[in-house]
Design a protein that fits this description.
Its EC number is 1.1.1.17. Pfam families: Mannitol_dh, Mannitol_dh_C, PTS_EIIA_2. This is Mannitol-1-phosphate 5-dehydrogenase. About 45% of the residues lie in helices and about 15% in strands. The chain is α/β, with parallel strands linked by helices and about 525 residues long. The chain folds into three domains: about 90 residues, Mannitol-specific EII, Chain A; about 230 residues, 3-Layer(aba) Sandwich (Rossmann fold); about 180 residues, N-(1-d-carboxylethyl)-l-norvaline Dehydrogenase, domain 2, CATH 1.10.1040.10. The longest helix has 24 residues. It is elongated and about 80 Å long. The termini are far apart.
Length: about 525
């Protein structure tokens, strides 16, 4: 059956009560076999707990999660009352009722691309509706956009998802964690708490989640009709995301605007990596499917510490954030993301962030772990650790000056800002969490070896960076698979093989001897223990 036909649209010159409006919307859906008559009670129950008035004269009533059995098929009903409806004290004139089939996430998106709804919304604007009343449109504009975000974890909800919401996107989170998907779909809003000086709370609405492990087809459907796709899954997981994006691109309307794809990962060229994985997964159809999307690399920066076990889907973050995005790919049609800034050349931004924030954070964790300190903020309170981290960042800044011509004074201020962020006592973050996955962090193009190799090639100092690598080699955590693997390899491999394999450095590289010596030192200590 069609989701929306003209028979499911009603326009009235007069007014109505809220209860009558709910009944009429339900009757339309019952007539097309989409819901049972009992669904009206579910909508009334929802209104008793939270109003579905959206602002701009629009209400989107829907049932509670406990009444999904009353839903039989996907359908949309639209009812307009020119005389208005008193919607719990709010003046609603356009009502829309949309429900997906039960196999999808139990939340109702706006029918973003339906021309009837768009005309109705334009009519409300012409009538002088107050845009500030729009709960799901924080910037006051029309909600005609949808973003699919892969990775519903703390970064996804507390950073990327928040900014997408503030840009007016309906956010569809995709994740493989059953409990997380269920928890997101069980709430109508979540709060992002900014901890520290200047912090505030932000309430996020207009989202839902789909389990990409159990329902990849639904995720592909969402991608097919999305305006943007973002990720925060980790660089090594992008290859698992790619096939779903390929499936979505294959279903995308030929006349649709290009899908805007941005990977928000702690890695250089992460979107390029994702594009390559999409091309590989698309096979012979790669050229056609890639033409339906545009790809922009990004640099993202916001500290999101480990969250309390009983925190639900709320997220605590630091007040500071940065999201830099390549502008060229969009051809002037930039995504609407408040707080993001678009740049022609992303390389200086992403390397400044990776070689300062990521290098400094990890160095603090490894030096802190060596000293037996639990929290990042406490580690930087130790003068010796603070000096070692500062020295490492001075070396990375020298590389950034040589490579990109960045201003040394501005970099010094940037370093000071970063270290103050790490010292924020309101962010309860541990050295064990920040230090996890040490093998990835000492790999060739990551936060230590990457800048140290560039420094060595230019004859610049690498003493402090190698010192941080030495501390990383000492990192032990029985709960971290890479930490366990690294210590086992240090016990069983010779120094030359271990150094070559884990750092990706050629034995002839000028940095190799110093790193190999650090490996030998760690192996000597292990053999003596």
């Amino acid at each position: 059956m069609s989701v929306l036909t003209l028979d499911q649209v009603r326009i009235h010159a007069g007014s109505s009560t809220q209860q009558e409006a709910l009944q009429e919307a339900t009757d339309i859906l019952v007539s097309v076999g989409a819901v049972t008559p009992a669904y009206v009670d579910a909508m009334r129950q929802r209104e008793e707990t939270v109003s579905t008035y959206m602002g701009n004269g629009l209400a989107i009533p829907h049932g509670t999660n406990d009444t999904k059995d009353a839903i039989l098929a996907s359908a949309l009903s639209v009812v307009r009352y020119d005389g208005g409806v008193d919607w719990a004290g709010e003046p609603a004139t356009l009502r829309d009722r949309h429900r997906r089939t039960r196999r999808r996430a139990p939340r109702d998106p706006l029918a973003d691309r339906d021309p009837l709804l768009r005309r109705g919304r334009r009519r409300q604007a012409e009538c002088g509706a107050d845009p500030g009343r729009a709960v799901r449109t924080p910037l006051g504009g029309e909600r005609l956009m949808k973003a699919v975000h892969f990775g519903a974890g703390n970064i996804g909800r507390g950073f990327v998802g928040l900014l997408l919401h503030e840009g007016g996107y309906e956010v569809v989170f995709s994740d493989v964690a059953d409990a997380l998907v269920d928890a997101i779909n069980a709430v109508d809003s979540y709060t992002v708490h900014e901890a520290g000086p200047g912090g505030t709370d932000h309430v996020v609405t207009g989202f839902r989640a789909v389990n990409s492990k159990t329902d990849p087809e639904t995720v592909a459907d969402e991608v097919a009709t999305a305006d943007a796709v973002t990720t925060a899954v980790g660089p090594t997981v992008l290859r698992f995301v790619a096939p779903t994006i390929v499936a979505g691109l294959a279903r995308r309307s030929a006349g649709a605007a290009p899908l805007q794809v941005m990977a928000c990962e702690n890695a250089i060229g992460a979107t390029d990596t994702l594009r390559a994985e999409i091309e590989k997964a698309a096979g012979v159809d790669a050229e056609e499917l890639l033409s339906r999307a545009v790809f922009a690399n990004t640099a993202v920066d916001r500290i999101v510490p480990g969250q309390p076990a009983n925190g639900g889907v709320d997220v605590t973050v630091e007040p500071y954030f940065e999201w830099a995005i390549e502008s060229e790919a969009f051809g002037g049609a930039l995504p609407k993301i408040p707080g993001a800034h678009f740049v022609e050349n992303l390389a200086p931004y992403i390397e400044r962030k990776l070689f300062t924030v990521n290098t400094g954070h990890a160095a603090t964790a490894y030096f802190g772990a060596r000293a037996g300190i639990e929290r990042i903020s406490d580690a930087l309170a130790d003068p010796d650790i603070a000096a070692r981290v500062s020295a490492a960042l001075e070396e990375t800044s020298a590389v950034l000056v040589a490579e990109h011509g960045l201003d040394p004074a501005e970099l010094a201020q940037y370093r000071a800002t970063i270290l103050e962020r790490f010292r924020n006592p309101a962010l309860v973050d541990t050295v064990q969490r920040v230090g996890r996955q040490p093998l990835r962090k000492i790999s060739r193009h990551e936060r230590f070896i990457g800048p140290a190799a560039m420094a060595a090639e230019r004859g610049l100092s690498t003493i402090a960076l190698v010192g941080a690598v030495t501390a990383a080699l000492e990192f032990e955590s029985p709960d971290d698979e890479q930490a366990v693997e690294m210590q086992e390899a240090l016990r069983t491999e010779d120094a030359l093989a271990f150094t070559s394999r884990t750092t990706g450095l050629d034995p002839e590289h000028p940095l190799f001897p110093a790193v190999r010596d650090a490996v030998v030192s760690r192996q000597t200590a292990l053999n003596a223990s």
